[in-house]
Amino acid sequence: MAQFGKETSARGEFVRQPNRFTGRVTEPEAGRYRLVVSLACPWAHRAVIVRALLGLDEAISLAVVDPIRDERGWRFSLDTDGVDPVLGAQFLSEVYLATDENYEGRVTVPALVDTHTGTVVTNDYPRITLDFSTEWTSFHRPGAPDLYPEGRREEIDALIEPIFHHVNNGVYKCGFASAQSAYDLAYTSLFAELDRLSERLADQRYLMGDDLTEVDIRLFTTLVRFDAVYHGHFKCNRNKLAEMPVLWAYARDIFQTPGVADTVDFDHIKRHYYATHEQINPSRIVPAGPDPSGWWEPHGRS
């Protein structure tokens, strides 16, 4: 049986649902918008990292849901009385239904919510981080990195595409495959892309050269989860990240970038994956390892 039946093809392939809400904030107001995330989710983690690196903490408030998602979806159970203090909701699904009362898809994070209307502006995770870089510039901290430099966007976008299909979404294609052939194809594509990226990074610090950009953040949120969940839970087990020297050093370099490590919560990551994917892990036992201390080992890439 597939983990997400509505997102599984007749060939047993995982086909991610499209993003339902695709509004954009082109005239930002500090304090108006609330970013709802799970610290376990790699798509949401991108937005948390970019928000931190750009210094948007004061301009955009943050709501963190419980890592354990049940049949009712993402819960605000980490907040007092299980209610988000700004949105007044117990479940993110309430905000989705306030936006579209007929919404029937899977409720996803990240979601950027307009606190004035109580509705979702966007759950379009690829666009959210780009807009943080390009539309929220008046709220960036002094010295904030240019994660999506105008002159290199076409080149960045060209790198983003295969990384999304074969790595970011590729691990899910492995983990949620319900046919051997679908899994085999996803597994082969995943490690072929990781090998290509390793070759690219062998003689340069970041994917675009000397500067950290959007595409590095997108790759990192998959790599940081690789050994903890994807290697075993999603059967992405040709190698651990720690057994791929270039990518392991590269990932530690980004992890140790000021502000990034604070956004990584291995407890949330492991509890979410192992305790909510009952078709893959029916016992819901959360493994004790791996030891995260290795993330602080010198990376030698600066």
From TrEMBL:
PANTHER family: GLUTATHIONE S-TRANSFERASE OMEGA-LIKE 1-RELATED (PTHR32419:SF6), GLUTATHIONYL-HYDROQUINONE REDUCTASE (PTHR32419). SUPFAM superfamilies: GST C-terminal domain-like (SSF47616), Thioredoxin-like (SSF52833). It is an enzyme of class 1 (oxidoreductase). The keyword Oxidoreductase applies. Pfam families: GST_C_2 (PF13410), GST_N_2 (PF13409). One of its GO terms (molecular function) is oxidoreductase activity. Signal peptide: none annotated. Transmembrane segments: none annotated. Its EC number is 1.8.5.-. This is Glutathione S-transferase family protein. The lineage of its organism: Bacteria, Bacillati, Actinomycetota, Actinomycetes, Pseudonocardiales. Keywords: Oxidoreductase. Residues 146-283 form the GST C-terminal domain. CDD domains: GST_C_Omega_like. Gene3D superfamilies: 1.20.1050.10, Glutaredoxin (3.40.30.10).
